[in-house]
From TrEMBL:
Gene: lacC_2
Annotated Carbohydrate kinase PfkB domain residues: 23-283
Entry keyword Nucleotide-binding: yes
Classification via NCBIfam families: 1-PFK (TIGR03168)
Top-tier EC class: transferase
Coiled coil: none
InterPro entries membership: Carboh/pur_kinase_PfkB_CS (IPR002173), PfkB_dom (IPR011611), Ribokinase-like (IPR029056), Tagatose/fructose_Pkinase (IPR017583)
A Gene Ontology cellular-component term: cytosol
Name by which UniProt lists this protein: Tagatose-6-phosphate kinase
Lineage: Bacteria, Bacillati, Actinomycetota, Actinomycetes, Streptosporangiales
UniProt keyword Protein biosynthesis, yes or no: no
């Protein structure tokens, strides 16, 4: 199975309105809430694909109970480690033009609470084909915590994907994750380089074994020591991009579990991510569109073999 860790899960609240007006009172007609956080979304996608997965996450307070209820109702296999603090909420405001995210920092997680989560991951690793560590770290958890999970996976010979940014990404690179999955902004911020192919090369140099960069409408760039590939989504795919990067990670984890070649992983991840944009909620995808896109998308090699 693919084990996902969401260090800082959330109740994702989505507000839909025709046009968000900042600095004004906005009336919201459509409100939805579901369990979220990046690793949770990865497990949702994997579960919808029929792939065995387990989401591991710290949960606390009334919001934590709401997250747990939603995961139970959705049938997403999960294991929660109880914490004292109150699980956070995120708010996505989706209007006809774009999506605005408001992400709370999350609860303070105590050292022994994080140690309990680590211990649970350690117990699960023998059954894991891939470990995914995805999303921000909550207050109280040091930037090296993601790197610590990467090292646990390495010690058990389990491929590990790190989807982190800022200091957590930098700390993670030092322990050579099997793959990292930055978006365009995270890639540029981590390297100071605007060109995605050059920035991905810099992340390889810094320690990543593979870089899978999600570039929004420009598709996906995969860079490994074996080469560099680019896959592009079909034109005109518009919708809710929240969670599209999590769909990339779900496809990447599946590809690593199956030891698929990189060009196929790149094409599949691009198709699944585009199909996720067409779905109204993070962690969901349009299954028909996924089939159509997967049949049409091919990754192009950017460097000679
Ligand atoms: O951990 P963060 O980086 O704050 O990201 C969490 C958020 O990202 C999303 O997973 C979308 O990728 C939302 O579901 C939301 O929970």
């Amino acid at each position: 199975m693919i084990v996902t860790v969401t260090p800082n899960p959330a109740l994702d609240v989505t507000y839909r309105l025709p046009a968000l007006r900042p600095h004004a009172a906005n009336r919201v007609a459509h409100v939805a809430a579901q369990a979220g956080g990046k690793g949770v979304n990865v497990s949702r996608v994997l579960h919808a694909l029929g792939r065995p997965t387990l989401a591991v996450l710290p949960l606390g307070g009334e919001t934590g109970r709401a997250v747990r209820r939603d995961l139970e109702e959705a049938g997403v296999p999960h294991e929660a480690v109880s914490i004292e603090g109150e699980t956070r909420r995120t708010v996505a405001v989706v209007d006809d033009v774009d999506t605005t995210m408001l992400n709370e920092a999350g609860p303070h997680v105590e050292e022994q609470e994080w140690a309990a989560l680590r211990a649970r991951v350690l117990q699960l690793l023998p059954a894991a084909r891939v470990l995914v560590v995805s999303g921000s770290l909550p207050p109280g958890v040091p930037a090296q915590a993601g790197a610590g999970l990467v090292e646990l996976a390495h010690a058990r010979g389990v491929p590990v994907i790190l989807d982190a940014d800022g200091p957590a990404l930098v700390a993670g690179l030092a322990v050579r994750p099997t793959a990292v999955k930055p978006n365009a902004a995270e890639l540029a911020a981590a390297t100071g380089i605007d060109d995605p192919a050059a920035a991905a090369a810099a992340l390889l140099e810094a320690g990543a074994q593979a870089v899978v960069a999600s570039l929004g409408p420009d598709g996906l760039l995969v860079r490994t020591p074996e080469g560099c590939w680019r896959a592009r989504p079909p034109g005109g795919v518009a919708g809710n991009p929240t969670g599209a990067g999590d769909a990339v990670v779900a496809a990447l984890a599946t590809g690593l579990a199956e030891r698929a070649p990189w060009p196929l992983i790149a094409a599949d991840a691009t198709a699944l991510s585009a199909a996720a944009v067409l779905a109204p909620r993070a962690g969901a995808f349009d299954a028909d569109a996924y089939r159509r896109f997967a049949a049409a998308i091919r990754a192009e090699r950017l460097t000679p073999a």
